[in-house]
Structure formats: structure tokens, C-alpha cells
Amino acid sequence: MSRNRIEIRLEQLKEKKEKAFITYLTAGLPDMEKTKAIIKAQAAAGTDIVEIGVPFSDPIADGPVIQQASYESILGGTNIHKCFATVEELRAEGCTLPMIFMLYYNTICHYGVESFVKKCRETGVDGLIIPDLPMEEQEELKGYLEGQDETILIQLVSPVSKQRVPEIVKDARGFIYCVSSMGVTGQSGSFHREILNYLVDVKAKSPIPVMMGFGITQASDTAPMKDSIDGAIVGTHFINLLREHDFSPEAAAEYCSTFKMELRELS
User: Fold this and answer.
1) DSSP per residue over 72-87, as a string?
2) Are 239 and 67 in contact (CB under 8 A)?
3) Alpha-carbon gap, residue 238 to 220, rounded angstroms
4) 51 is catalytic
């Protein structure tokens, strides 16, 4: 089996004994051109992977910050077609940063599952994170993803998935996205003993890298669990930071560069 851009990047980090830094931003906030500029700035600043949130009218797994971002983006006219076009343009302009679509399954169904997967391959979408698609309902999508390496499905686990972790990670690709709390994204960054135990358990069972998300604002937040994760994902805080700096690509680059440097020191 060959490797796609996500897996290649993670293998390179493993060889250097570095942890991955992954960010999330909502596509089209404030517009698609700014989204492109922010992604390019992050790539230059050393961000390893970027999650591009495809806005949806009912983002049930997201907290208020990302819900509001999604709402504003939709009002601005963002849709899946524009998201695909943006990735395609970035690839045409030489951007090799691994890019993941984070979206809800309704969007994929409306587009057409087979057509959606085909479009992901054509435009350069490396991975998919679908928070409302449980393991038991992934068969159709996986059927279209199998036999190719351009686009892979990233699996999520949470503390309530503990008994199912071995089954979830068995055929997973890329990385395992660990939800650190029982609630939605963007909650407190304080980590309890149960969370640490849960991460240790997932790490012990996963054959691929384990990423920690939901609540991280700075690299030091990962220190208590640095031996149990392979990287950090920052979403809500990154959206807030972009707002505070009027969606400045330079501010995004500065934050990402600093986070990556501090994360490297923790490794």
C-alpha cells in the first residue's frame, strides 16, 4: 500500500521524532481568497496538516465558535463546490500541505457519495473527517475510498468509544483523532486523569499516530500527555485568533510558527 500526503508527512515527523501540528479553519471565513491566503501562510510557517471545515447548517459536533463561523460562512455563499475549487487552486499554485475536509455526511450524500470521492481525488483532498458518520455506517463511503490512496477517512474516538477502540483503529489510516472531552469542540483545555488514561489506552491499541484535539490553545497544553499522543489539533482557538487579527495571514503564520517550535521543544 502506498501512502498519501497525510501519511507521508506523519512518517517524516516520526523519523525526526517530532509531533504533528494540525489546525482547523472554516472555509470561506471571511471569504475564500482569505482562506487560501491563510492556508498558504500556515504551510510556510510549518503547519503539518490543515483541516478545512466545510460549513453546514447544523454542525452538531461543534461548539459555539465554530457554529458561528459556519453560519457566517454560509451567509457569505460558501458551499462544497467552492471548497473543492479552493483546494484545486491551492494545488495548482504548488501547495503540497496535506489538506483534510471536515464535514457532515449530509453534504456528501447530497453531492452523491461516489461523485464526492471522485472529486476529492481530482482536486487533491487528502482526507475526510466526518463527525456524524459512525463506524457502523461507513461501508458505502469506504467502498468508494478503497483501492486508492489519494483520499483517506480519518477515524474519531472519544472517551465513550473506549470499548470499541480496537475495532475503530483496526483498519484506520492516517491518524486517530482523539476527542478529549465528552462534549462538543472548543471546551475547556483542562485535562483530567480519566482523559489521560483514555489517551494511554488509545495509544496502546492504535497502529497509527494518535492526535489530540478539542480544547488546545497552546503547545504547553499537550505537555501532560506528550507520551501518549503524536500531535495536537487546534480549532476553536485558531478561529478566535483569526477573528482577533482580522483574519491576517501574517498573524496565522506567527501563531503556527510559535506553536510548532514549542511543540518541537516538548517532543
Assistant:
1) HHHHTT--HHHHHHHH
2) no
3) 15
4) yes
Q: Tell me if residue 249 falls in helix, strand or coil.
A: helix
* 62 labelled catalytic: yes
Torsion of CA 228, 233, 43, 51, to 10 degrees: 130
DSSP per residue over 20-56, as a string?
EEEEEEETTSS-HHHHHHHHHHHHHHT--EEEEE---
CB atoms within 10 A of CB 5: 20
C-alpha cell at 124: 487533491
In angstroms and rounded to an integer, the radius of gyration of the C-alpha atoms of the chain is 17
Count of alpha carbons within 13 Å of 20, Cβ hemisphere only? 33
Between CA 133 and CA 32 the distance in angstroms is 27
- Cβ atoms within 10 Å, residue 215: 24
Q: Which residue has the cell 479553519?
A: 25
Q: Which of 58, 48, 151 is nearest to 105 (CA)?
A: 58
pLDDT in tens, 177-201: 998 654 444 445 444 577 788 889 9
pLDDT digits 0-9 by tens, 241-261: 999 999 999 999 999 999 999
Q: What is the mean pLDDT of residues 122-133?
A: 96
Q: Which three cell numbers stand for residue 86?
A: 479552493
pTM: 0.93
- The letter for the amino acid at 189 is G
Write down the catalytic residue from 7, 48, 62, 221: 62
- Rounded to 10 degrees, what is the CA torsion of 98, 103, 106, 110? -40
Residues, the chain = 267
| Beta carbons within 10 angstroms of residue 162's beta carbon | 15
Q: CA 38, 99, 14 angle in degrees (round to 5)?
A: 110
Given 7, 48, 51, 126, the catalytic residue: 51
